[in-house]
Give the backbone structure.
Amino acid sequence: MNTLQAGDKAPQFTLLNKDDQTISLNQFNGKKVLIYFYPKAMTPGCNIQAQGLRDSIDTLNKLNVVVLGISPDATKRLVKFTEKFELNFDLLSDEDHQVADDFGVWGLKKFMGKEYDGIHRLSFLIDENGTIEHVFNKFKTKEHHQVVLDYLKA
């Protein structure tokens, strides 16, 4: 896994959201974009992380930050996830994990003694010019939104 770092140019991508609409990173030129990668919708850690961002969206909007969640889930699962937790930002489907590969967050994981490939929970703050400003890689899911807000307000 070769994870992108601050100062790297963010890879351009286009993915489908829950409504099967295409969303491209370059749509948000001139704004900061928080791209957060999460392993699987409707799982405890991912639920908590998404709810924290949902509850912080007004503050993030005031700070000119767009939130995009990316997972290997199909768009149908994203619909259920969005509706169940009343999420107010776009979730994008990366079923072939190409974007996760491009950002360097797809790789070997271990859970309960088993090894498998999957998404590592990392977030990238992309600046207004498409460069990675900061990588959030050390946080608890329930504190993710606050770690992001603390960074943005510093």
In short: The beta strands are 14-17, 22-24, 32-37, 65-71, 90-93, 106-111, 114-119, 123-126, 132-136. The first strand starts at residue 14 and ends at 17. The mean pLDDT is 95.
